Amino acid sequence: MSGMEQPQARLAEGKTKIIWDLPGTDEVIIESKDDITAGDGERRDVIEGKAALATQTTGNCFRLLERAGIPTHFVTQEGDRTFRAKRVDMIPIELVARRVAFGSYLKRDPGTQPRTKFENVKFEMFAKDDPNHDPILDYDFETGVVRRYKASAPISADTLVDEVPISESPFAISPEQQDVLAGLTIDTFEVLEAAWADHEVTLVDLKIECGVTADGQIVVADVIDNDSWRIWPGGDPEQMVDKQLYRDGQPLDYVADRYAWVAEATNHFNPTTT
Taking a C-beta distance cutoff of 8 angstroms, is the pair 249, 134 a contact? Predict the structure, then answer.
C-alpha cells in the first residue's frame, strides 16, 4: 500500500477485501484481495492480479456513477489495489437489480421463461447471512415485521426462514429508507446498463451495497467489480465474462483473462480514463 497515507488499523476483513482505518479523518482505505470465492465462501481460490483488476473496475464504475449524480462513498483511487472512501455504516443488505430473468430468480419464479427481459428493472433485497445462504427479505411495514425466505425456491410458508419485528431485526429499515435503496439500486443499474450497452454488452443483473455517511446520507458503497454482476457480450450467455465463469468451474487463467477484459472495457466508461 505504498504511495498513500499509511492506515493504522484493520477495521474489517471480508472474503475479498480489507477495510483500513485512516485516523483523524472521516475516510477509510479499501483494499481488494486476490481471492475469488463461491458458494458463500465454501469454495476459494487466489487469482494473482485480481485485486488490481477489481480496484480498476470499481474506480471506473464509481466515477461514472458520480458523474451521473448518484452518491457514492468513493473518493479516489490510491494504489493498484486500494481506494480511499468515505467512512460509512454499512447496511447489511444485498441490493439486486435485474433486467433479465436468470440465475436464482428462476428458482423463485419458475413460471418465468429464462432470459425474459423485464420492461421495468426488478428490485430485490437479500440479507447478508452466509449460514442461511442470503435469504430474500420481505418487509411488511403495516404489521411491523420482516420475513426472510430461502432464496432458492418460491416464496411460501414452507420456505420461510424466520419472521421477526422489524425493530428487532439486524436488517431493520424504514419505508423511506427502502424507497431510497430501491431508487439508488435501479438508478445505478440503469447508468451501468447504458455504459455497457455502448460496448454491445448486456447487463443482466447487478448486486450492490449501500452505507450511511456521518451526516445521514445513504450512498452506494462497498465495491462494484466483476463479482458484482452478470454481463453478456452480444447478449449471449455463452459469451459471459463475469464471475459465473468461476462458479461454473472454468480454468483460473481463463477467468483471470476475462476479468482483465472487463477492467479494460470499463476504462471507457469515463472519458478521462480512455
Answer: no
3-state secondary structure labels for all residues of the chain: CCCCCCCCCEEEECCCEEEEECCCCCEEEEEECCEEEECCCCEEEECCCHHHHHHHHHHHHHHHHHHCCCCECEEEEEECCEEEEECCEECCEEEEEEEECCCHHHHHCCCCCCCCEEEEEEEEEEECCHHHCCCEEEEECCCCEEEEECCCCCCCHHHEEEEEEHHHCCCCCCHHHHHHHHHHHHHHHHHHHHHHHCCCEEEEEEEEEEEECCCCCEEEECCCCCCCEEEEECCCHHHCCCCHHHHCCCCHHHHHHHHHHHHHHHHHHCHHHC
pLDDT tier, 21 (very low <50, low <70, confident <90, very high otherwise): very high
Q: What is the pLDDT of residue 5?
A: 52
CA 224 to chain CA mean position, Å? 5
What pLDDT is attached to residue 271? Answer: 73
Question: What pLDDT digit, counting tens, does each position of 120-134 carry?
Answer: 999 999 999 989 999
Q: Does domain 90-250 have CATH number 3.40.367.20?
A: no
Grid cell in block for residue 42 = 465454501
Cell numbers at residue 62, please? 464509481
Q: Which of 57, 82, 77 is nearest to 269 (CA)?
A: 57
How does pLDDT run across 90-102, given as a tens digit for each residue? 999 999 999 999 9
How sure is the predictor about 274, in pLDDT bands with cuts at 50, 70 and 90? very low
Q: Is the pTM of this model over 0.85?
A: yes
